[in-house]
Amino acid sequence: MVQHGLKKVKTIIKNVHDTVDYINGSEYRLKKFAELVGQFNIKHRMLVLECKTRWNSTYDMLACAIKFKEDNKLNSPDEFVSGMVKNMKERFDKYWGECNLLMAIGCVLDPRLKMKGIEVTFPDMFPVEVVRDNIRKVRETLYELYDEYVSLYHLPTMEQRVDMYLEDGCVIDKGDQFEPIKWLKDQALKFHILSRLAADVLAVSIKTVASEATFSAGSHVIDPYRASLSPDTVQMLICCGDWCQSLHGVKRKNKNNNVGQANEIILPIP
């Protein structure tokens, strides 16, 4: 959704990104830029280079670039963003206008919610004319999934077991550590197929992680060009590094410029 909105200002973002990257690519250019900043008596002496997988860094880059504009009263970061809002809102409405069956089935497979979770939330999420159809679609999809698992494990059709699960009522649990998968596993004798189905559905992650965040543990292990190291090799290098630090009493220092964060360029004072 955000990427869709950013298309409105993609030319501006690319120009600013390329300019900052160009200045950052040479000590000589950094020095000359610092001299220009001094000549125009600009108090701000920092450039920010975005990380393309982190949208907050894109905003920071634009907000910083505005401060070097000759007449920065004519524009602001908020004005850049305002052109994106309409497109993002349209994409957001389209996303929520369709029933996300995976998340809905995941809700039903939580014994604390079951179909009640769907029946309570769907009226707030969808137009009134499609609420009933979406609820029916979720129930039918659950039955279809159940039949697939029955066929997979070569068991006779026992669709009443899904109904038994839904009609048993919701589990009342006041603890913060309740685990739906564990609860269904403990009920495997009663819900043999359903427990297997839940283990697969509830294991699906509903979020993504930027590759930079995955590698943030070791900018000293994997360079910015993503060296072709196997996972075993990376693990070995990190472990060896930790052992060496421990052996020699070296304490790990937190770095302000980890992979995946916006790169800040502090200009030298001429």
Written description of the protein model:
By secondary structure, the protein is an all-alpha fold. The chain has 13 helices and two strands; from the N terminus they run H-H-H-E-H-H-H-H-H-H-H-H-H-H-E. The chain has a two-stranded antiparallel ribbon with strand order 1-2. The two termini are 43 Å apart. Pfam families: Dimer_Tnp_hAT, hAT-like_RNase-H.
Task: Describe the secondary-structure layout.
Layout: H1 2-6, H2 10-24, H3 27-39, E1 46-49, H4 55-66, H5 77-97, H6 101-108, H7 114-125, H8 128-152, H9 160-167, H10 180-186, H11 192-201, H12 211-214, H13 231-247, E2 263-266
Antiparallel strand pairs: 1-2
Helix pairs in contact: 7-8, 8-11, 10-11
Protein name: DAYSLEEPER
GO molecular function: DNA binding; protein dimerization activity
Pfam families: Dimer_Tnp_hAT, hAT-like_RNase-H
In brief, what are we looking at here?
With 270 residues, the chain is mostly helical. The chain has helices at residues 2-6, 10-24, 27-39, 55-66, 77-97, 101-108, 114-125, 128-152, 160-167, 180-186, 192-201, 211-214, 231-247; strands at residues 46-49, 263-266.
